[in-house]
Amino acid sequence: MKAYLAYLSKRLVQFAVVVFVGINITYLVTHMTPINPVEQSISAATTYGATSPEAIEMMRQSLRQLYGLEGTPWEQYVSFWKRVLVGDFGPSLSAFPTPVSQLILRALPWTVGLLLVSTLLTWVLGNLLGGLAGYYRNSRVLKAFGVLSMGIHPIPYYVVAFVLLIIFGFLWPILPISGGATMASDRSNTFAFALDVVVHSILPVLSLMAVGIGGWFMGMRALVSNIVTEDYVVYAELAGVKRGKILRSYVMRNALGPQVTGLALQLGAIFNGAIITEQVFGYPGVGSLLISAVHAGDYSLVLGITTVSIVAVSATVLLIDLLYPLIDPRVEAR
Amino acid sequence: MRFLRLLTVATGLALAATTAMSQTNVPGVPRNETIILENPEGTIKNPGWFNIWTINAGGQYTGLHQLALDTLWYIDPERGLDGVWENSLAAEKPIYNADFTEMTVKLRPGIYWSDGVEFTPDDLVYTVETQIKNPGMRWSALLALNVESVSSPEPWTVVFKLKKPNSRFHSLFTVRFNAIWMMPKHIFEKAADPQRFDFNPPVSLGAYKIHSFDPDGKWYIWQKRDDWQRTTLGRYGEPGPKFAAYIDPGPPDKRVIAQLNHNLDVVHDIAPEGMFTLTKQSPSLKTWFPNFPFAHPDPTLPSVIFNMQNPAFQNRDVRWALALLIDIKAVSMASYRGAATLSPIGIPPTGTHPDDYHIPLQEWLASYEIDTGKSKVKPYDPTIGNQIADMLRPTMKEQIPTDPAEIRKAFGYGWWKPNPQAATELLEKAGYTKRGNAWYTPDGKPFSIKLMVEGDSRPILTRAGTMIVQQWRQFGIDAKTEVAQGTTMLDRRIAGDFETLISWSVETYGGHPDLSFFLDSWHSQFVAAPGKTQSPRNWQRWSNPELDKIIEEVRRISFDDKRTVELGRDYAKLIVREMPIIPLMAYNVFTAMDETYWTGYPTSENPYANPVPNWGNSRSMMVKLKPKQP
Amino acid sequence: MNTFRIFRDLFRYNGEFAIGLMLVLIVLAVAACSFFSPYPPMDVYVVPPDVPPSWEYPLGTTSRGQDVFWQLTVAIRNTLLFGIVVAALSRVISLLVGLISGYKGGWVDRVLMSINDTFVVVPLFPILVLFYFIMRDQMTWAMLAVITALLGWAYDARLIRSIAMSLRTREFTRQAVFSGMSTGKIVLQEHLPFVLPIVFSTTMNNINWSIGIEVTLSVLGFTDINTPTIGGMIYWANQHTALVSGIWWWITFPVLLVIMLFIGLFLLAISMNEYIDPRSRLSRLGGQA
Question: Is B383 an interface residue toward A (CB < 8 Å)?
Answer without folding.
Answer: no
